[in-house]
Amino acid sequence: MYVVFFIIVCLFAINDNIMYAQTVNKLTVHCDTKGAEIPSTMYGHFFEDINFGADGGLYAELVKNRSFEFPQKTMGWNFFGNVSLCDDGPFENNPHYVRLGMTDHPHKYTGIENEGFFGIGLKSDSTYRFTVWARGEKQRIRVELINNSSTKDTQVIAVEKLSIHSKDWKKYELLLVPRETLPNAHLRIFLETNGPVDLEHISLFPIDTWKGREIGLRKDLVQALSETKPGVFRFPGGCIVEGTDLKTRYDWKKSIGPVENRPLNENRWHYTQLNRFFPDYYQTYGLGFYELFLLAEDIGAEPLPIVNCGLACQFQNTELKAHAEIDSLELYIQDALDLIEFANGDAHTIWGKKRIEMGHPSPFNLKYIGIGNEQWGEEYVVRLERFISEIRKKYPDIKIVGSAGPFPNGENFDILWAEMKRLKVDLVDEHFYRPEDWFLQSGTRYDLYDRNGPKVFAGEYACHGWKRGKNWNHFYASLLEAAFLTGVERNADIVHMATYAPLLAHVDGWQWRPDLIWFDNLRSVRTCSWYIQYLYGNNRGSNVVPITMSGKQVSGLSEQNGLFASAVWDNKTNAYIVKIVNTSFEKQNVSISFLGKKHSDFHSKVKRIIFHSDNIDDENTLDDPYKIMPVESDVMAEDCFNFDIDKATFVVYKYFLK
Ligand code: AHR
What we know:
- This protein is an alpha/beta fold.
- It is 20% helix and 31% strand.
- It contains 11 helices and 33 strands.
- Strands 3, 4, 5, 6, 7, 8, 9, 10 and 11 form a 9-stranded antiparallel beta sheet that branches. The protein has an 8-stranded parallel β-barrel with strand order 2-12-15-16-17-18-19-20, surrounded by 6 helices.
- A hairpin with a 4-residue loop joins β22 (517-519) and β23.
- α5 (330-344) crosses α6, α7 (377-394) runs parallel beside α8 and α10 runs parallel beside α11 (528-537).
- Alpha-L-arabinofuranose binds at residues 48, 50, 237-239, 373-374, 406, 431, 460, 501-502, 512.
């Protein structure tokens, strides 16, 4: 009986080996050919204030409606006792403030309470800076951070008192150190004297922001952006550049200068998805263009601002009268020219001087500007033409990015590409939010692009894995993004930038998914898609090197067993970096040969990174943020010329030359 069992086991093993032998995938890296340089801008980020990405997210302000300028002036606040709203405050663009006065009985209290963004996230023993513009003589307020629980008694977890002693408006500050960690605290202010006391621009920031900047950014989120080594940073949108109408477009000039005087703008993501309706979603512009340029600089990325081209959102406005007339485009064109001056001008220029006054004497070295977001049609082309002519006249070196519209193919797309070539834009911004099949079939997308026209910016892309159940940021979607990026990398001569979208999402405040990074008031999680960005950004290399299978590029072609691959030479580390994606649901055997090189030309150790999830529907979550992570190891080179790749797996191999 044992003999029979042994024979059966052997038969299975042989059978397995036969299958295995039949599916050897022979890859050849053409070391004799050094292809196009991989632009430093290749992998980057696109930031838009969607999903509470700015106010309530990256911008670390914890008070909602801090200047009482939301259309419903008390939104986010609870007033109690004798509180009145006034509108002749010290800041011209934000004139509203509150006046706290005495009540008719010493046991009745006057004060205000703010609910933050889905609560206020506080960490115990961290310090928070409370600031307020106030006026009043011999007055005192008590500032408290409290829990917000319907099931427990109110607990004060930090409290300080502030004396107000000037009849003129003055900025006051105090520090609060909560004794508990809470994701959804409230800020409460009591009047302790008889009043009146006037309060305006009431603000609370953690001290521990990115680079410790006052009025700064959330550290964990910027850290996640910077770790992908982004080469380009596109901002501020997206649809918010266009606005639902032109008066609510993103107006960069309103987003600079002292934060107290930056006017509120609506945010169209407040109402764009009615099933995710957020009536309290506005843009304070606290995270404005100065801060966005600074962020690009901090994370080492080329800034790529997008300006409005005189068109409001074309999805929401089908009538031409919603847009700026062609002969009244000067204002919009001037905004673009002034933006370049703001970024690059010296102290003798109007806008350069403003940047310097804000604290950045050296230029931001702006090299790119995008005209319009997702635009299309004749109405776009005629406007873009005007912008191009004016920008080229004054700033011939600035590279101009035009739009290919909202979809990755079709009539509009083709017309726009032809127009972009005619207008000689430098890059064309393509957008694709597409399902799994599209990504699987698009590995060769850029192989046939015209090499003589503008370059490509894959400005907004994400695999929308809605076919795979309830997890939108599931592993398999990210795997297909990795597969698609092999085609981007292989075509680095024509594709110069690629940015996933959207970037950030608050778990309680999202309008669009999937997203690259999710967060709540205290935590953040890097999705599988983030890890793909991380792996590409950190293994960018310097030049494309062709990699083939039976003489063809490896891009998921029918005979390629679901494999996608790209290879680069990295002159910094003297290594070939090979990326292979097995999108199939079977283990694949791969052999790699390096043309013109012997195994003995390589170091004995190869760096190997494996990104895999046994369950392709799994995703990283706030509660389980490290569920799916790349695993990096140094392995013996002799095991890296012929190896198995597990089903549904992304691998990166780095072969160092001696
Ligand atoms: O990324 C979300 C939105 O998708 C962007 O605002 C817009 O450009 C696109 O339609």
